[in-house]
Amino acid sequence: MVMLAKAIVFITLALIFYTIGVFSEKKQVH
Questions:
Q1: Domain-located, residue 30
Q2: Buried b or exposed e, range 5-26, using 16+ CB within 10 angstroms
Q3: What's the number of domains the chain is made of?
Q4: Which of 3, 11, 12, 13 has the fewest CB within 10 Å, making it most exposed?
Q5: Given this model, what pLDDT does residue 25 score?
Q6: Is residue 8 part of a domain?
């Protein structure tokens, strides 16, 4: 159960950082 909870939290954080990264790239126009 603990490993599953850690995995869910890790995946959620990864998705959040990925979304922020994509948003930042779209926001910055080179």
A1: no
A2: eeeeeeeeeeeeeeeeeeeeee
A3: 1
A4: 3
A5: 87
A6: yes
On whether residue 18 sits in a domain, the answer given is yes
DSSP state at residue 28: S
Q: Give me the sign of the Cα torsion angle 25, 20, 6, 1.
A: negative
Alpha helices, H only, 1-30: 2-27
CA distance 2 to 10: 12
One-letter amino acid at 29 equals: V
pTM of the model: 0.63
What's the CA gap between 21 and 4, in Å, rounded?
26
